[in-house]
Description:
By secondary structure, the protein is mainly β.
Amino acid sequence: MVALAAVAGCAKPDAAIPGEPDASSQPASTPGAAQPTLVATDWQCTAYASADEALVDVLAGTMVTARFEDGVVRGSTGVNTYEGGYTIHGAKLEVDPAFQVTERGGSPEAMDQESAFLAVIGRTKGYTIEDGILTLTDKTGMRLATFEVAN
């Protein structure tokens, strides 16, 4: 049986329909290029912000993923699976930092990656999709993680 653990965080009441983009504004994209959508796309993380806020590559041999759908983001940290809530308002994406995470063990490096990834995705306040690359940002616009469409 797989145990689930809740990572502490507080949900904010919100008037938006979870998982539904606000038609009043959309994130930046390259004109004329067909872009994948945030919702219902399987995303594979290529880099995430480290403790010093520099983007670092995902560890070789691990796959960190995210799929946003129906107000729930779920995926893999490279060791465990996770699930949590999100809301969208145009280019604003708020991910609730209270995740349910399976409790499998991994190497110290992979577990550090998991902790860092969950911390940065839980700070997400915005996103862009440009040239097929999803970038999650914090409230100041700092890049938290980058993703490409999973194969």
